Structures are given as C-alpha cells and as structure tokens.
C-alpha cells in the first residue's frame, strides 16, 4: 500500500561539517570526512580520503544505513549522486554533502531518493550554482510504500536487476579504458620513434624516451614556440550569455575542446584584450591547476570567427614554424610527467610558464611532423569512434536503469 508523503516525513536530512584547511591532518590524528570523491559508481569509495582534527558530535557521525548525498558541486552532474553507508565507519561528512537518515529500509529509501533526485534535477542545477538543500529534498512528494515487507521485496528486486546492469556497464568501461590505454601507447610510440622502423637511432639524452631517430632533434618547448602565455580571468562577475567566450579547464578535455558550461565576459573586459590573447586555429591549450586536470592538453581546431580567450588556469602555446598538432600529441604522451612536475597539494597542484618552457621535446623534420599528425589523426579517430560507441551503450544502460527504478518505486511495474 502506498501513501503520498514528503521525503522529510520518512526521514531527516542533515547538512555536513564545515572545516578549514588548517583542520586537515594525518589519518591517525583525525576523523575521516566523506566528500563527493568518496562516492564512485553509487558506492562508498575510500581511495581519496581527507581527515580533519575537529570536534564532531555523535549526530554528525555516519551510521550504517545512512544515505550520503553530494549536495553542492561545481559540476551539476555530480550534484545528487548518492551512496549508502553499508558498513560500520568512523566518519563524518563535509559541508558540500548531506546525509538522509531513515528508520525504514535503507535500500528501498536509496532507490526512492535516487528516483526523486533524478526526477527533480532541474530544481537544483542553475547557471550560477549547483546545489541541493534540506528544504528542496525534504519537500519532494513521493509515493511511499508503507508495508515493510514490500519495501524489502522492492529493494531486493531492484538490487538484483541493477547489479546485472551495473556489471554490464563495468565491462563496457573496462573495454573503453583498454582503448584509451591503446591510444596513449600508440601516440607515445609514434611521437618518439616515428613511422619507420628502418632508421638509424641515437640516444635522445632523455631517460624517459631513450632512443630516437638519428635525424631528429631534441629541443625545448621554448625553442619551438613563437608565443607562450597564460589566459586571464575577469576580476568581476562573469556576464550572462553573449559572444565573449572564456574557456576554463573543464572546457579543455582529452576528447576535445567543448563549449559546454563556458563562461562569458562583459564587452568592456574583451575591449581591453590584446589581439594575441584571442585563440587561433592550431593553438595548444594546457591546463595548469588541480589534480586530475593539471597537464591535460587540448588542440584548438575551431576557426577564428568566435572571439575566445582562456581563463588564468590555461596556458596557450603557439608556433609559426612547427606543427602544433604534433606538439599537442607530444604533450599527450608526457601527461604523467607533467602531472608529476606540478607542485602543491593534490587539488591545488600547479605549474607555470617557466616550468613548461624548459621541457625537452623530440622534433622530427616538418615533413615528418605532418605525416605523423596525419597518421595519428586517423588512428585516434578510429579508436575514438569505438569509444563513442561504448559511451552510447553505457548511456543507454544508465537510462534503462533509471527507467526501471522509476517504474518500480512508483508502482507502475508490478514485481
């Protein structure tokens, strides 16, 4: 039997712990603070942990059966992701998280909450902020199954069906990862050894690269670049949507440049910009800040009809005499090296222009650069098509999962 109730009628939402960087400490000196990175694939993950030395009340300790929710994040896609605390854990949760605590079956509550968040996604994702509040979630109406035995039956049915879907998704993700590794290996091999296997080799003098074709040169990035500069971030509010584009690090992805979530500046800000600051076809973009982003290279392959600049966290490398697509592929091949060069804490690691200028790069003659780029463009395109097909399959499986949860928790599908 179902009853129409608000979520706050069947449980309580609790905001998270506010702490400062000064409170962060070693594991043995503090308590684990669960954050959005501790939710991976709808499960609690303890691979990226932060501990704080703070006073935490008993009510702010997670309990077995609690539902941990990402309530605020710069990425709208992460807001609302949820996982159940399935085991005893001495931990609290951060200020950008919340916990839903209920006396009812936690697995049934998880699916009910998951459905409610997905259905009402538009309520908490805006152009300026992505957040969920206790009030937003608490006032969502749901068709609640009041019979405990039926709750268990629903939860068990969905656990079985969803686990099968998730297993298939996991296999697809493994295939995609293998393809990504293949792409990295192919790029690294070709930009350091060339297309011909029948050439005389010499020691590059770079331990991580080793032998290279004897007719290639070893230069530094500063030697092949005509311009290297950082973007600039407006010191005031960003403008509403217009034609003054400012690309940030999230717009510079391994899959290519994306304008999804791009920022916009006022006309007065763009009027102050010098001509060289506007992106040109063939520019290489390099993210310079933050774990997971620092060292990520992009290739700007759009025409010059759009007036686009980068913000202060992206470095632009431009060359008039060398093939910049070859440079882009080379930077892809040394991404791990670039990550290791960055200094600072994991989330705020960075490097600057002086670090990049002195990076050694192996350079074939311009004719070979062009041949290598043509070859890698074709090979990478084939791999990316396979990756796109897998991504589409995963997306369809996720949609199937949402539809199944919706049908079961709303009572549209009998079990």
Estimated structural class: alpha+beta
Oligomerization category of the chains in this entry: single chain
Number of distinct helices = 9
Give the N-terminus to C-terminus distance in angstroms: 14 Å
DSSP helix fraction:
25-40%
The rounded Rg comes to: 25 Å
Q: Give the total of beta strands.
A: 25
Globular, elongated, flat, extended or rod-shaped: what is the shape? elongated
Instruction: Estimate the strand proportion.
Output: 15-25%
Strand order of the largest sheet: 2-11-8-9
Tell me about the biggest sheet?
4 strands, antiparallel
Low-confidence stretches: none
Mean pLDDT: 92
What does this structure look like?
Strand 13 (201-203) and strand 14 (211-213) form a beta hairpin. The chain has 415 residues and is of the alpha+beta class. It has nine helices and 25 strands. The strands form nine sheets. Strands 2-11-8-9 form a four-stranded antiparallel beta sheet. Strands 3-7-4-10 form a four-stranded mixed beta sheet, with no helix packed on it. It has a four-stranded antiparallel beta sheet with strand order 16-24-21-22, covered by helices on one side. The longest helix is centred in the middle third of the chain and has 46 residues, at 148-193. The mean pLDDT is 92. It is elongated and about 75 Å long. Helices cover 34% and strands 21% of the residues.
């Amino acid at each position: 039997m179902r009853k129409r109730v608000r979520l706050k009628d069947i449980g309580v939402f609790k905001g998270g712990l506010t702490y400062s960087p000064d409170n962060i400490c070693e594991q043995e000196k503090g308590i684990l603070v669960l954050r959005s990175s501790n939710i991976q694939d709808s499960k609690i993950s303890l691979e990226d942990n932060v501990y704080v030395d703070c006073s935490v009340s008993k009510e702010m300790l997670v309990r077995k059966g609690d539902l941990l929710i990402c309530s605020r994040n710069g990425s709208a896609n992460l807001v609302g992701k949820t996982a159940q605390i399935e085991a005893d854990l001495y931990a609290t949760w951060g200020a950008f998280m919340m916990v839903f605590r209920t006396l009812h079956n936690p697995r049934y509550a998880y699916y009910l909450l998951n459905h409610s968040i997905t259905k009402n996604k538009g309520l908490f994702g805006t152009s300026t902020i992505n957040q969920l509040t206790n009030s937003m979630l608490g006032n969502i109406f749901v068709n609640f199954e009041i019979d405990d035995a039926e709750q268990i039956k629903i939860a068990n049915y969905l656990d079985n069906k969803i686990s099968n879907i998730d297993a298939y998704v996991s296999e697809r993700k493994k295939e995609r990862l293998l393809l990504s590794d293949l792409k990295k290996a192919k790029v690294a091999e070709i930009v350091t050894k060339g297309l011909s296997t029948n050439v005389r080799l010499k020691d590059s003098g770079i331990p991580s690269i080793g032998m290279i074709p004897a007719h290639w040169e070893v230069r530094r990035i500063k030697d092949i670049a005509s311009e290297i500069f950082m973007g600039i971030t407006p010191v005031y509010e960003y403008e509403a949507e217009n034609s003054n584009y400012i690309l940030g690090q999230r717009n510079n992805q391994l899959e290519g440049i994306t304008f999804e979530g791009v920022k916009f500046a006022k006309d007065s800000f763009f009027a102050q910009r010098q001509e060289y600051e506007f992106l040109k076809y063939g520019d290489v973009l390099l993210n310079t800040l933050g774990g997971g982003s620092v060292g990520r290279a992009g290739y700007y392959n759009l025409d010059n009809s759009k007036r686009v600049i980068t913000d202060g966290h992206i470095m632009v490398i431009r060359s008039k005499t060398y093939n910049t697509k070859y440079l882009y592929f080379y930077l892809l091949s040394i991404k791990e090296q670039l990550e290791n060069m960055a200094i600072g804490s994991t989330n705020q690691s960075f490097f600057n222009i002086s670090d990049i200028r002195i990076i050694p790069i192996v350079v074939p003659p311009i004719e070979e650069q062009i041949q290598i780029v043509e070859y890698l463009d074709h090979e990478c395109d084939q791999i990316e098509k396979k990756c796109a097909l897998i991504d589409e399959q995963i997306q369809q499986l996720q949609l199937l999962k949402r539809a199944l949860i919706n049908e079961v928790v709303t009572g549209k599908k009998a079990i």
